[in-house]
Design brief:
The chain contains seven helices and eleven strands. The protein is of the alpha+beta class.
Length: 208
């Protein structure tokens, strides 16, 4: 698995395409997911599909499995029979959800049983500045997890608040991002799309 995903980050043509196209694709995702100027919750799923489409472009759709059972909360795609977790975050590293749940007991059970087991692709979006596309191999995650321990690696929602799930802490992500055995692509997040007709393609499909 390492060799497959590492090749994504070492392929000069693919890297240049990511640098050039990912901001505009994510901007389209935001426009399509916005209502009255606010981005909807579906934005995460749309961004995820953009990254999965990149894997299909690079490796062929026959090698990319997207029919993931709901019982696999951390697996977003399977590449060459290996599970991958895809995460996106806006702004600084921190607050990346491992599991979304409004059930406090489920969140607690997840945190008690959690151990890194999936390679992770993480896109850090930073509009108007520098962000990154990271590849965190599971071996790197395990090293950081064992180094800082479970209590510092995971963040549970505070009691008495509306629980949203279990997060990887800012400390864990910063340590992961500084390791030499990860891969990353620097991306300048500049908005380039001035106009986009959200409904135009659906109107055309009705017209066919």
């Amino acid at each position: 698995m390492d060799d497959y995903l590492k090749s994504l980050f070492s392929d000069r043509e693919i890297v240049n395409k990511i640098k050039r196209k990912l901001p505009s694709l994510f901007q389209l995702a935001e426009i399509d997911s916005s209502r009255a100027g606010k981005i909807g919750m579906e934005i995460g799923s749309v961004r995820e599909r953009i990254i999965i489409a990149l894997l299909m472009y690079k490796y062929g759709d026959k090698n990319v499995k997207v029919d993931i059972p709901i019982t696999e909360p951390e697996t977003d795609v399977i590449l060459f029979n290996k599970p991958i977790s895809i995460k996106t975050i806006s702004g600084n590293l921190g607050g990346v959800k491992l599991i979304w749940t409004v059930d406090p007991q489920k969140a607690l059970d997840f945190s008690r049983n959690y151990y890194p087991s999936k390679d992770m692709l993480l896109v850090q979006i930073n509009w108007g500045g520098l962000g990154h596309f990271y590849y965190f191999p599971v071996a790197c995650q395990i090293k950081v997890f064992n180094e800082i321990k479970r209590e510092s690696y995971l963040k549970l929602p505070k009691q008495g608040t509306n629980p949203r799930g279990v997060e990887i802490t800012k400390e864990a992500l910063e340590k992961l991002s500084k390791r030499k055995d990860i891969s990353k692509i620097d991306i300048n997040w500049e908005r380039g799309i001035e106009k986009h007709q959200v409904y135009e393609r659906w109107v055309k499909l009705w017209d066919n």
